[in-house]
Structures are given as structure tokens and as C-alpha cells.
Specification:
461 residues, alpha+beta, 2 domains, seven-stranded antiparallel β-sheet, 15 strands, globular, binds zinc ion
Length: 461
């Protein structure tokens, strides 16, 4: 059994929206209360309360109705979250990680988790439990429940900007395969994560997979460019220190948040697609172990603002987590290894070669050449448990499958509803879009001509 989480949007009426945001606000209040209480206690020389049971006792001393419609189980959920975060930070600090911080930041809206028993799922509706004395809160989902209702363990209400979502966590059995088709743990593949190709996989039997992430990069660039442009335009409307923001400024901020969350959602979706592609490909080839290069050791180095930004937009931790989750559900083991030097070692003669500039790897010692990211993948596979690849039994990939992640993103195909510029090559400062036929002599107008208008009216009547 593995735990999987899926996010589903909500379709709410104005009243339901108000109540949902009320719950998020109440959870934010509960979170702020714990932080404040512990700050006061420490200022008075008392110890901070971090133990979950003790926190619950403090909560029940406060009595019912303190946190609006939030019921006590959900309020306890907030305390549990605080307690878990505190102990996780304490553990990391004890192990010598000085960067770990205790929870200290207040947030206005905090996600509310409804435990098993605090929600009811019926068709496309969910009932969220509220405090005693309040009417039941039913909300409609914008798609079908992705898991069988009896497998769902918890439902979390959260917001992204002004949109409301629920995250459903379900216990899902690990995939079963017909006999003879199940993943074989001795069959290994090396996975090289990268910016241009989110995953390049060198598998056994001379097969390889390259997932292209150009669409993700295009989306990132476009978003960055738009953000810059928007910032420049509204900079003069920004409130001065000590000044309250204008209504116009607040509107701009809301729009900015909306676009930011949309960008994040799009990238996330594309990354899920990339990970899914790898796992499906591996399962079809009975690969039981994915050896994944973990570049996070070298990412803390400062390498200039452009590359720093690129690395930050990559969201590698998130990508590896998606891959791990999906592989686990498919019954495939994931092993993380250090990827240092794997892209600059020749897989044929094992000698160091200067890092290639393009996508093609060439060895000046033995004349070997191949796809640069697959070279990384092949070298990573050798670092796996007892792993050897590119022997006679496992040659360097010659059959390469190419897949794209993020087909939904603007730039792969023109999206009708996306008013933004298409990505382009060549001119730096904006493009004029797709080539169009020249306008007719005398100019053109979108307004219907006089004769057309008459024709329309006679047709209708
Ligand atoms: Zn070589």
C-alpha cells in the first residue's frame, strides 16, 4: 500500500466560498495562537509547549467556539502540524544542521486537514465537518473523485490565490502485473535529471528514453519575462512605506498572485507528466530499479545569477519526489546516487573528458560518441547497487525514445485561450506572432459591413 495525493478543484457558491475561507482563516488563527503563546511563555522564562498532547490540553482549556466554524479535530490537526514541524526542526538541528528553523512565521490562511470520519464523499460532492451548531458544509468538486471513496484517508482544504482546492490522500495498492511482466529488480536503468531534458534514462538492452522539457523552459522564460514587464509597468503605483495600498494596487497584487499560481500549476503538471513517462517506460521494459543521479550536492554553489535562477526554476527536489512516488506505486525501486562527474566520463573507456557544450558527447580518447544526457544516465546506472551497464550484455542505448513533457503548455501548440506571446527565436524584444497574410488593399475592419449587417438581420427573422 502506498499513499497518493490528488488535488481536485472546488465549485462553490459565494456563501460556500466565504465559509471555506472562514475555515482557512480560523486555522491560520489557531496557528498564530500557538506561535504567540510560545513566544509569551519564552519571554516569561517558561518552556515552550511543543508536545502535541499538551497543545491539545491548552486548546481544550480555551473551550468551544474559539476558532469559528473550525471543529476541534481540525484545530488539533493544526496543532499536530506545528508539533511535527517543531520536532522535525529540532531533530535536524541536533544532527548539526544549523539552517533548520523552528516554525515562526504566521500565515493568514492555513490548510485544513479533515481526518477520516470528518468528511463524507458522495458522487462529486464532499461534506466537510464543521464545529457543532453550524449547518453542514457541502461543496461540489470540479471533476470525479480520482480514487475509490473507501480508500480515501484524509481530505485537505487549501487555497492557491483565490482558488479553492481539496487534496485527497488515499491508500492505493501497489500495481500488480500479469506473471512474467512484473519489474525485475536486477534490470536497472540510470536516470540523469536535467534542465533541458527533465529525465534521460539509459536502460538495459540498448534502449534509452529522453524526455524533453523545452516546453517547461519556454513557460518559465515567458513567465519571467511577463513578470518583469508587469513589475516595470506598475512600479510607480506601489505604495510608499507607511502608505496604505490603493485599490488599484491591491487588484494588481491579486492578478500577480493569480498568474504566479497558474505558472506553478502548469510546471507542476508538466513535471508529473515527465515522471509518469519515465515510470511507464520502465514498467513496460520490466525495469525494477531506477538509479537516479542526485545533483543536489553541487547546487548550493554560487555560479552567477543567471544560472542560479535556472537551478532555482528547475525544482529538482520536487521532480525527484514525483518520480519516487510514481515508481513506488508501480513497484519499482528508486536508488539515489551522487551524480558528480557522470556527464564528463566516457562510458566506453572510463576516462574523463571535458564537459561537452552541445547535446552530443564525444570522447577524444576512444572516439565514442552519444547523447550527452544518456551518457550521464549510463554512468549513473553503474553507480547503482552492483550495477554495470554498457558491457556487452548492456550496450550503450542505441534505440532512443523521445517524449515531451508539458504538451498542454503554450509554445508546444498554440493555445487558443492563452493571450500571451508565443515563444520565438531571433529578435530579442518581442515577436509579432505567427506570419499572417497581408491585409487587403484599402485596409480591413472587424466591424461587420453594412450589407453584411442587413443580411444577418434578414437571416435571423
Ligand atoms: Zn572513451
Amino acid at each position: 500500500m502506498v499513499l497518493r495525493t490528488a488535488r481536485v478543484g472546488l465549485r462553490v457558491t459565494a456563501g460556500q466560498r466565504r465559509r471555506c475561507f472562514g475555515l482557512l482563516l480560523a486555522a491560520g488563527d489557531a496557528w498564530a495562537c500557538v506561535l504567540d503563546m510560545n513566544r509569551w511563555r519564552r519571554q516569561r522564562g517558561l518552556y515552550g509547549i511543543t508536545n502535541f498532547q499538551q497543545l491539545c490540553r491548552e486548546l481544550h482549556k480555551a473551550g468551544p467556539g474559539v476558532f469559528g466554524e473550525l471543529n476541534s479535530q481540525c484545530a488539533e490537526g493544526v496543532l499536530r502540524r506545528y508539533s511535527d514541524a517543531w520536532f522535525a526542526a529540532a531533530k535536524r538541528r541536533k544532527n548539526g544542521d544549523a539552517t533548520a528553523r523552528f516554525p515562526r512565521r504566521k500565515r493568514r490562511l492555513v490548510p485544513v486537514r479533515f481526518r477520516y470520519g470528518c468528511f463524507v464523499i458522495e458522487d462529486q460532492r464532499v461534506r466537510l465537518a464543521t464545529a457543532r451548531g453550524h449547518p453542514p458544509l457541502w461543496v461540489r468538486l470540479d471533476r470525479e473523485v480520482p480514487y475509490p471513496a473507501e480508500q480515501i484517508r484524509s481530505v485537505t482544504l487549501l487555497n492557491e490565490g483565490r482558488r479553492l482546492f481539496v487534496e485527497m490522500t488515499a491508500e492505493i495498492p501497489v500495481a500488480t502485473y500479469p506473471p512474467g511482466c512484473e519489474p525485475d529488480s536486477s534490470r536497472m536503468a540510470g536516470v540523469d535529471p536535467g534542465v533541458i531534458h527533465p529525465f534521460a534514462v539509459a536502460g538495459p538492452d540498448g534502449e534509452g528514453l529522453v524526455v524533453s522539457g523545452r516546453a517547461i523552459r519556454a513557460e518559465t522564460h515567458l513567465h519571467l519575462k511577463d513578470t518583469k514587464h508587469r513589475r516595470r509597468t506598475v512600479a510607480k503605483r506601489a505604495p510608499k512605506p507607511g502608505q496604505a495600498g490603493s485599490r488599484r494596487w491591491r487588484k494588481y497584487r491579486a492578478r500577480q498572485r493569480k498568474l504566479e499560481t497558474r505558472h506553478k500549476r502548469r510546471v507542476k503538471q508538466a513535471q508529473h507528466e515527465a515522471a509518469k513517462t519515465v515510470v511507464t517506460w520502465a514498467a513496460q521494459r520490466r525495469i525494477g530499479t531506477l538509479v537516479v543521479g542526485d545533483p543536489r550536492g553541487v547546487l548550493t554553489l554560487k555560479v552567477g545569477r543567471r544560472h542560479n535562477k535556472r537551478v532555482q526554476d528547475w525544482r529538482i527536489g520536487q521532480m525527484l519526489r514525483y518520480l519516487k512516488d510514481k515508481a513506488e506505486q508501480a513497484g519499482i525501486r528508486v536508488v539515489l546516487v551522487d551524480e558528480r562527474g557522470t556527464s564528463s566520463t566516457c562510458p566506453a573507456c572510463d576516462r574523463r573528458v571535458p564537459k561537452p557544450r552541445g547535446r552530443q558527447f564525444r570522447c577524444m580518447h576512444c572516439g565514442f560518441s552519444g547523447h550527452r544526457d544518456l551518457v550521464g544516465g549510463a554512468n549513473i546506472a553503474r553507480r547503482g547497487p552492483g550495477g554495470t551497464i554498457t558491457t556487452n550484455k548492456n550496450p550503450f542505448p542505441v534505440v532512443i525514445t523521445h517524449r515531451r513533457a508539458g504538451r498542454h503548455l503554450p509554445g508546444t501548440e498554440p493555445a487558443r485561450r492563452d493571450p500571451r506571446r508565443r515563444p520565438h527565436h531571433g529578435t530579442v524584444n518581442g515577436s509579432h506572432g505567427r506570419p499572417r497574410p497581408a491585409p487587403p488593399p484599402g485596409g480591413e475592419s472587424l466591424a461587420p459591413g453594412e450589407d453584411q449587417q442587413h443580411g444577418l438581420i434578414t437571416n435571423v427573422r
